[in-house]
Amino acid sequence: MDPVLAADLAAFPDLLDATRRYATDVLAGLDERQVSPAVPAQTTALPSTGTGFAAALAEFDRRWADGFAASAGPRYLGFVTGGATPAAVAGDWLTSAFDQNPSSRSGAEAATELERETVRWLAELFGVDGHTGAFVSGATTSNLVGLAIAREWLGEQRGVSVASAGVGALGEVTVLSGAPHSSVYKALSMLGLGRDRLRLVPTLPGREAVDPAALEEALAGAGGPAIVVGNAGTVNTVDFDDLRALVELRKRYPFWLHVDAAFGGFAAVSDEHAHLVEGLAEADSVCVDLHKWLNVPYDSAVQFTRRRDLQVQVFQNAAAYLGLPTDNPDFVHLTPQNSRRLRALAAWFALAAYGREGHRDIVARCVAEARRFGALLSATPGVTLLAPVRLNVVCFTLDDPERISEVLDAVTASGEAFLTPTVYKGQTALRAAFSNWRTTPEDTNRVHAALAKALRG
Description:
The chain is built from 15 helices and 11 strands. By secondary structure, the chain is of the alpha/beta class. The mean pLDDT is 96.
């Protein structure tokens, strides 16, 4: 054994303890850490001779650590980024320590069953108890899996198996949506259906929610089975399609209903907002991203479907050492990956530790802070809200849109907060997404103060 590796093995407990202390210091400093710091120093060549973990940690701290964003912290409001709760961090550490591959029950039965239990817990949390599912890397892969199953369903309607015959056997394909996330286009590209197959359907006036009447007209003109991508929480304004109306349309027109509920699905845990996802249980496939509002470490998402049989047709990976799919198929037959990290463990710890009530509290506090931030912006000269604060995202613009880049750069340079730009209905805008379990009213005040200072120039 390499002598440096052998020395690290002998000192393994001490190295883990040093890592714990280092991580503890990082997390303890999140409140005051620069939220989006400058790029670190230049990279170096691959070392010929290793120096061992202790020296590597010292080098990481010297060259890289200060350049890492405080994305786990309370004022990182860009994209839709959760932090990681204590139980989720600990679960993620144990994921690496146990180093399981839950793709097959062979040699990893307990890990596989833990993932199944976690998926059932999540299905109950989101009100889709009749669905089966699996863990994947993020919302993009979750949408990919859902649309892959939809593609196989289209083939079933036409008497072919796309998984066997290829996408060319489908002929013309119609995919309809009101305000799809960009990952839907990416998934359609990867699936061979094509980005151009997605037809945008008009949304309701002043909304990002699809107009059910316009959708019905599009379905009537489709001339056969189609795919509809419903939205439960759009990126810019967290708008929700009327899922009940979509389910009713499905009684008259043949289509696969895939719902992108990446973070809007968490409305289900809130008594005040659960009505927004009524009808989700009737969707054919559902995407939920967990490293957003479940506040588990990257990368983690879950996909759900009511047609696991079609999912197996797409993703089965029969080999002598894997075996054929059974009535309760291994995960190797359900997702794009053969080898998979046990992503479920961090989510299992989060759900076991905090339960439904703990996560309901996280959602409620994030929504409260989003509303408060919206109210502060409404009273700020030079700022206009572009939509009501429906859940946890605040979408706004400046009276002088040409200053948006300047103001955004100033906020980022202050180290106090991180926001992301967007375009909403043709207007350049800014978004603040409240998804982190740590965010407090004081943090919201600090973000607003940094923005107000940047506006003053």
